[in-house]
Amino acid sequence: MARILSSEDVESGFIPTGYSFNQVVREIKNRLDGQPGIFSVIQIGSIQREDSNCISDADIVVAYSRYMRKSIFCLLSALCGYARGLAVPLEFIPLDHTFAARGAHFWTPSFTMHVKWAEEHDGIICGKAVTPNIIPRDERKSEGLDYAISKLQKILKKVTLLPVMDERERYDLFTEVVQVPVFLARKIVWDMGVRLPLDSKAEVIEAYIKNVSQEESLHFRNLIQVAARYRNLVESRPRAEFYKFRVTEDIGTAGLERLIRYLEITIENILARRG
User: Fold this and answer.
1) Which of 122, 166, 259, 275 is deepest in the core (most CB within 10 A)?
2) Which residue has the higher pLDDT, 240 or 149?
């Protein structure tokens, strides 16, 4: 898709070229081809159609195994940093291979066909076509499942961009760690038919922990503790450098990983409850 360039990049000539797009695709193939846990890497959009220009970006679908997610996403993050060095805005579109095969994804029929067209026209960088393994999205209404899937997809896409984010963008992402758990719990409690007198945060937390599995509850409570520690940090009014360090370590590193794992487990459990 087209994007707006910064005035600094335009003035300095730090803009992508056809060569830089091709170089990024070659580097993606070099680093990801044959990597354990990667099923498919597919270029889509303008770079695949070979009609990219100086305001294009690079969109790459990556179908991966959840059990190798951490190591794979380290590679994707490094590739985003590499691409930034060539002025190429690179965005990965991650797809959990297992969830895709169970209909727990947010690919619309039109987007699936878009990827299928790329697969059929030399868009596969490495691996094999992904669309044959995608079953239609489960359309049975569930606020909790829809929210969990959409949040996981959004967060995974942004995690790969951390190396090229500014501080405000990073903090916007880190905010998900302290916001998502209770918001998701409220939706899951609603889906279960539990109605709360006040619908307060305390009521939601109590009802949620009572009605979900021990594993799901444990990950949820860990995230609630992360939010509590962050609140205590803010109330202590620390120096700026110490604050940045703690936010990066507690929220940006440990917190984000816990949130991703919590969302994965929650999606699995909702699917299991639905049968």
Assistant:
1) 259
2) 149
Q: What is the mean pLDDT of residues 210-219?
A: 96
pTM of the predicted structure, to 2 decimals = 0.79
Asked if pLDDT for residue 35 goes beyond 70, the answer is: yes
